[in-house]
Amino acid sequence: MDQVLDALLARLTVERESELRFIGTSPRGQQRRVYGGQVLAQSMSAAIRTVDPERRVHSLHAYFMRPGNPAEPIVYEVDPLRDGKGFSTRAVVARQGGRAIFNASLSFQVPEKGLEHQDPMPDVPPPESVQSDFDYHTALHEKDPARYEKPGRWAMDYRVVHRADPVEHAPMPAHCGLWMRAKGSVPEMPDVPGIHETLLAYMSDNYLIATSLMPHGMGYDHERLQNASLDHGLWFYSDFRADEWLYYDITSPRAAGGRGFNVGRIFTQDGRLVATAVQEGLIRLLPAAAL
């Protein structure tokens, strides 16, 4: 297994301090705040380990309340709200310095058969024909090292099908499609249940806010933009592997009030719709006088 992926799996599998209390850490680096997908994944890891392994996570609803400090550990406190015949519910609060930075509700279900239908997967080029984000950002750095940082090693492989121009940022429809998977094989980990769902939670926080910026010809680095994840929802429908290609089809049907709303459907390469992500993000435009 790739060393970077191995380190990520270890970080997302939070340390158990007591029956309902877990500790998570962040990678060392230059980031100013904790990546939202990490908190989503760590909270899911904590909740999963308080539920009967027969029950599978099927939904998560979360709110980001404060930016996390990557230099400090994160305490995850799980509240076992309910264990019914078919479903279990857990609440998780993440704290730093005694202050809540994030909370989530997760629901688990005993697997069962039922009625099924799904949207068809979009017709897109295969992942092997699409340039990886790592290669793309490496090429940008080599072309203009003063403007673009050299990317470090990544645990995930993202491949955007149609890219926005990194300089011009011309307005585009609010739609983004990308292939994604763990960069390496995820081993079978019987003592770490739900690892593929946890990894998908980690990946799902990428590209959502960026999609809501596309009609406005803006990128994350726009000097007048303040952006952050506000809330996040995930629904899981069937089994998948996070180390096999998944297609993330994202649209942003609305932006208003300094917020962008985004919906992402996640398909396996053979066309099964296995999850949906929904997120509202802060896309506040600062006045020029504030710069």
How would you describe what is shown here?
The protein is an alpha+beta fold and 291 residues long. Helix content is 17%, strand content 37%. It has a twelve-stranded antiparallel sheet. It is globular.
CATH architecture name: Beta Barrel
Question: How would you spell out the order of helices and strands?
Answer: HEEHEEEEHEEHHEEEE
* Main sheet record: 12 strands, antiparallel
Shape: globular
Question: Number of helix segments?
Answer: 5
How many beta-strand runs? 12
Strand content: 35-45%
Number of domains: 1
Oligomer kind: single chain
Topology:
Elements: H1 3-12, E1 15-18, E2 21-24, H2 36-48, E3 56-64, E4 74-83, E5 87-96, E6 99-109, H3 133-143, E7 156-160, E8 175-182, H4 195-204, H5 208-213, E9 225-236, E10 246-256, E11 259-268, E12 273-285
Antiparallel strand pairs: 1-2, 2-4, 3-6, 3-9, 4-5, 5-6, 7-8, 8-10, 9-12, 10-11, 11-12
Helix pairs in contact: 2-4
Could you name the key traits of this structure?
single chain, alpha+beta, Porin, 12 strands, 5 helices, twelve-stranded antiparallel β-sheet, 17% helix, 37% strand, 291 residues
